[in-house]
């Protein structure tokens, strides 16, 4: 974007005085993101009117270091009729500066001149004329990134990574230009990444890149904002770490308003990566025209709301269907099991194990809840809302049942059904099996931004008291719950 500084912004920048913190931060943002900074010839005329010759020449010498807007047009009669006839040379200069915005020679003006801002309002371009504080607010919102965090993962800059570790050998082997790409693109552009380490050795790696360009398939995918998974690699077979990295990537997209994510990959027979990403809605959309690499694209916006609930939850995860046809249940869970099943829940007390151990089911999107409940109404596509009992007494998380619930007394069958989803030890599973355990396989979709307390649930007639067992609620109660919990409705289909 092209940004024009008014004279009253330029003088503080060039004066031998300490800049205000807001102006320092604003200039850093503008320059970090490579916006074009320009000045109007009228600003030079303003400075030339300064009676202090030494100061005038000093400031002019510095301002000439900025690009000057070439041959800007002079205001026409219709413009002057809108903003008013200038009464002095300062007004004439202000009008010329504002006219360059009005004629779209620049995208924004930054000024502390209230007169220019009043005139901009008359021209209906006031949304493009900023003070220092409003410009800082705009650019901070424009570039602020809400980056997800996890206690097991480190976020680092590319230059902090040692790519001579054995972990990167396969990437260098599969991509002959990996070293050059790393140096020229990742290090020089200060890209960020997430890593998982064990004893100082990298075992998992994720790097994302924001894009606003076409994908070079045949035919090409249209230009739109997307996130690309430039690198995803895990050297921990069976750990569910890949799911954790995908979950992190999805959260990045959601936090920062991206509705498509993709990756490129040379597919092999029985490819584990293709299997994992296929479970979360990545679809092969063709090959890159430059090198034949397969392209896998995932969308977050549901294009056909008539699809089956499970299809929506899988293909467009974390979207889910929640209309009146969907059954909804409140599921009580003790704090100790909640902590293990949802270790990244932000409102729980962290323990030493959070920083030292891989919690397999906690890392996963796919989870399993065990209960002695006799309920029979839960089916694939049902919504489960987890109520953390005892300490917080609040609904915290929402998921969608993704397989038929199972009731069993066979420990071997229980272990097979639960598999890597379980938060329980072998001994605990044996104990559960003796009680004719009820297993609910589900995918975790969201935490409620505003966890709903028992008092709220009572007030809205959703619950009468603390739930002792799995409790079905009706659609109206769910709507009140969804509203109070501030669930992001961009990702619900109804």
Automatic annotation (TrEMBL):
<dbReference type="InterPro" id="IPR016181">
    <property type="entry name" value="Acyl_CoA_acyltransferase"/>
</dbReference>
<dbReference type="InterPro" id="IPR015947">
    <property type="entry name" value="PUA-like_sf"/>
</dbReference>
<protein>
    <recommendedName>
        <fullName>N-acetyltransferase domain-containing protein</fullName>
    </recommendedName>
</protein>
